Amino acid sequence: MTTALNHRTRFTDRTALVTGAGSGIGRAIALALAAEGANVVVAGRRRDPLDETVTLIEGAGGKALAVTADVSLATDVQAAVAATVDHFGSLDVAVNNAGVFRGGAPVADLPEEDWHSQLAINVTGVFLALQAQVRQMRTQPAGGAIVNIASTFGVHTRHPGAAAYAATKAAVSVLTRGAALDHIGDGIRINAVSPGAVETPMSLRPGESEADRADRARATLPLGRISTTQEVAAAVLYLASDDATSVVGTDLVVDSGGTA
């Protein structure tokens, strides 16, 4: 996979931190930010996928740094922010994308450990990341922009077997809006993007092939297909950019019309 540098330069001389950037939506966001001029710090629990993302960015002429971090641990998130500032001098954009899905079972049958792991990463991880990122950004004259990745599962729709995951992503949406109100006075804009089905393994149902998924999308989604990771990344970059300077506390849905 290669990505040429974009002709747009909305993030030149800015530094972005993206969690969960070793694959899927997170990697697409990191590549898109770098293509528009950002220095990008990619964070996640596994080093090898992060290094692959860095190689892709550098191969396209961008600048990137990989930092291993578990977002459910305050010390890891704080260290990731510190590494970002130490290496590139500032933290101007943060995208909190790290998340896990433990589903497929009704609430009464969901293992308690699956509930706790989703809560720890999807909700507490975003909370801890917001704390560390805001504390840095409010020391900067230009403030910053933060985008949290929620989901259409949650505030927008529900699905059998995914109640716990939906609850965590609904929490991300509400947390985003509350934090946006708390910190816009600090010069920090906070918003969310809620993807629907996206071209990643997470959107495949048990035993379903990509061709099966495409057939299902043609039959059920108004657009007739699921979203690409690049389309979700474009929404994130809009909210993080100066194109959205008056957008505060929104939850932007990218779902091929599935919740229209």
Automatic annotation (TrEMBL):
<feature type="domain" description="Ketoreductase">
    <location>
        <begin position="14"/>
        <end position="196"/>
    </location>
</feature>
<dbReference type="Pfam" id="PF13561">
    <property type="entry name" value="adh_short_C2"/>
</dbReference>
<dbReference type="InterPro" id="IPR002347">
    <property type="entry name" value="SDR_fam"/>
</dbReference>
<protein>
    <submittedName>
        <fullName>SDR family NAD(P)-dependent oxidoreductase</fullName>
        <ecNumber>1.1.1.-</ecNumber>
    </submittedName>
</protein>
<dbReference type="GO" id="GO:0016491">
    <property type="term" value="F:oxidoreductase activity"/>
</dbReference>
<keyword id="KW-0560">Oxidoreductase</keyword>
<dbReference type="InterPro" id="IPR057326">
    <property type="entry name" value="KR_dom"/>
</dbReference>
<comment type="similarity">
    <text>Belongs to the short-chain dehydrogenases/reductases (SDR) family.</text>
</comment>
<dbReference type="InterPro" id="IPR036291">
    <property type="entry name" value="NAD(P)-bd_dom_sf"/>
</dbReference>
